Amino acid sequence: MPIFNGGCLCGQVRIAVRGEPKRVGICHCTDCRQESGSAFTYFAVWPAEQFETRGETKEHSGRSFCSRCGSRVFSANAGDAEIKLGCLYDAPTSLAPTYELWVKRRETWLSPITGAEQFDEDRS
Q1: DSSP letter assigned to residue 113
Q2: Is the pLDDT of residue 77 over 90?
Q3: What is the rounded CA–CA span in Å between residue 60 and residue 117?
Q4: Which residues contact 38 (CB under 8 A, 6 or more apart)?
Q5: φ, ψ for residue 49 (rounded to 5)?
Q6: 70, 56 in Cβ contact below 8 A?
Q7: What is the CATH number of domain 3-118?
Q8: Does the predicted model carry a pTM greater than 0.85?
Q9: Can you tell me the distance from the alpha carbon of 64 to that of 46, in angstroms, rounded to the nearest whole number?
Q10: 95-98: long-range pairs with CB below 8 Å, 24+
Q11: In angstroms, what CA-CA distances link 48 with 21, 22, 45, 74, 83?
């Protein structure tokens, strides 16, 4: 069973997830763009019981971030843990997006991910 380890920029928050994720995606929505400071967010969802975290986090709108450096690393709700894959230590990973959300907000210079399901807004 694979284990993926990661953490925040300063190292105060550490995360680990076991096994393969339920799904891997990219989101181009305004919230994800603003919270990441980038054109999209790359994330994966695991069952909460496969997720562990250490260190002090703060939360805003369900999004947990390091209380020291502000790095956004995960959201945990409704039995799932959504991990920002940019916080994983080993890159590149084998985790390829199978879908894209809010493609109507995707930058025109970004091409759709080949083979990934495309959604104008959220998944139906």
Answers
A1: P
A2: no
A3: 29
A4: none
A5: -70, -10
A6: no
A7: 3.90.1590.10
A8: yes
A9: 16
A10: 95/4, 95/21, 95/24, 95/44, 96/24, 97/24, 97/25, 97/26, 97/42, 98/23, 98/24, 98/25
A11: 11, 11, 9, 11, 11
Q: Residues 58, 15, 21, 70: is their CA dihedral positive or negative? A: positive
108 vs 103: CA distance, rounded Å: 10
Averaged confidence pLDDT in the chain: 95
> pLDDT tens, 7-58?
999 999 999 999 999 999 999 999 999 989 999 999 999 999 999 999 999 9
Tokens of 52: 């562990």
Using CA atoms, how far residue 69 sits from 34, 36, 55, 99, 112, in Å, is 17, 14, 12, 30, 32
Going by the DSSP 8-state scheme, the letter that residue 36 receives in this structure is H
Q: Residue 124: is its pLDDT beyond 80?
A: no
Number of Cβ within 10 Å of residue 112's Cβ equals 12
The DSSP symbol for 88 reads B
pLDDT band per the 50, 70, 90 thresholds, residue 1: confident
